[in-house]
Amino acid sequence: MAIPHKVKLVDVGPRDGLQNEKQLVPAEVKIGLVQRLQAAGLREIEVTSFVSPQWVPQMADNAQVMAGIERRPGVRYSVLVPNMKGFEAALPSRPDEIVVFASASESFSQANINCSIAGSIERFAPVVEAARAKGIHVRGAMSCTVGCPYEGEVAPEQVVRLAGLMRQIGVQHVGVADTIGVGTPRKVQKALEAALRHYALDDVSGHFHDTYGQAVANTLAALELGVWQFDTSVAGLGGCPYAKGATGNVATEDVVFMLDGMGIETGIDLDKLVDAGLYISDYLGRPSQSRAGTAIARKRPQAQAA
Ligand SMILES: CC(C)(COP(=O)([O-])OP(=O)([O-])OC[C@H]1O[C@@H](n2cnc3c(N)ncnc32)[C@H](O)[C@@H]1OP(=O)([O-])[O-])[C@@H](O)C(=O)NCCC(=O)NCCSC(=O)C[C@@](C)(O)CC(=O)[O-]
Fold first, then answer.
1. Which residue of 164, 180, 203, 258 lies most exposed, with the fewest beta carbons within 10 A?
2. Where is the signal peptide (predicted)?
3. Banded pLDDT at 246 (limits 50, 70, 90)
4. Is the pLDDT confidence value at 244 over 80?
C-alpha cells in the first residue's frame, strides 16, 4: 500500500491530555490551548468530555470550555460522551462530532465505564442513533486494542469483535487505541487490520500512546497500511486515569516533524504548534514531552540568548 500524501491529525490534548492532570486546569487555559491549536492549523480538536464529574473532575467545566472557544469554519470540535445523559448535556454546546468509547478488553471496560463491553454497546446504541438523527458525526474510540493494563495482551480477534459491534450500532469511524502504549509496529498493524475488517480505510484512525517510546514508529507502520488519520496530543500531554502508568499520546509536534520530513501534507504550521505546546507546558510547570517541540524551542534565538 502506498504511503498517503495527506494526513489528518486530531489533537486530543485538551481532552485526553488534560483529563489526567492532577491539578485542575482552569477553563480559560483550556480555551487558550484550543485557540492556539486551531491557529496552528489543526482542523479537528477533541475539546472535552461529558462524563461523570465524579469519575473525571478535570472535565467538569466541559460546557464552559465549549462556550468559550471562538469557532472557526472548517474546524471540527469533538467531545466524548459515555451515555445518553452525557449526550444530552453535550447538545447545547453544539459538538460537530461525538466520540463514544468502548474497550476491546472486559476488565478495562469495567474500570473505565463501569460496565461490560456488551453493556457499553447497549448504552451507546441510542446515543449513536440520536446523534446521527441530528446530523452529528459519530466516532468510536476502541481502547486496549493491543494490550490491557489488567489482562495483558489483547488478541486481534477481540478488536474484530468490538469493531463489528461498533459497526452494527452505526458508529461511522473507529479509532484504534493503544491505550497503554505497549504496541510495536507489527502488533499495531494487526489491530488496525482487525478494524479494517469492518470499516473502510477512510473510517479508521490510529490513537497511540507513547509509554514505551513506540508511538512514532507505530504511526509509520499505520501509514504503511494506508491509514491517514491519527489522534495526537500537543506536547505529548496525557494518559488515562483508568490505565495506571500510561503516559500521553504521541506528541503532535513529533508526528508533524516526521510527516513534514516525509513530504506528507498536514496543513499544520509546526512553529505555531510548538508555541501551543510551550503555552500548556509552561502553565503546567513542566517540560513538554515532545522531543521535536523541545528541540525546536531550544534553537529559537530567545532560548539561545538565555
Ligand atoms: C460511564 C459512567 C458515567 C458510568 O458511571 P456509573 O457510576 O456507573 O453511572 P451511573 O449511571 O450509575 O450514574 C452515577 C452518577 O453519575 C451521574 N452521571 C452519569 N453519567 C453522567 C454524565 N455523562 N455526565 C454527568 N453525570 C453523569 C449520574 O447522574 C449519577 O449521579 P448521582 O445520581 O450519583 O448524583 C462513568 O463510568 C464515567 O463517566 N466514565 C468516564 C471515564 C472516562 O472519562 N475515562 C476517560 C476517557 S476514555 C479514554 O481516555 C480512552 C481513549 C478514548 O482516549 C482511548 C484510549 O486511549 O484508550
1. 164
2. none
3. confident
4. no
Which grid coordinates belong to 36? Answer: 492556539
| Atom 55, ligand 1: residue with shortest CA distance | 143
Q: What average pLDDT does the segment 243-254 reach?
A: 87
148 is catalytic: no
Q: For ligand 1, what atom is nearest to the CA of residue 249?
A: 57
- How many C-alpha atoms does 162 have within 13 Å on its Cβ side? 36
Domain ranges of the chain: 8-305
Identify the active-site residue in 115, 144, 148, 240: 240
CB atoms within 10 A of CB 114: 12
CATH hierarchy code of domain 8-305: 3.20.20.70
- pTM, two decimals, is 0.96
Instruction: Provide the CA 147 distance to its chain's centre, in angstroms.
Output: 17
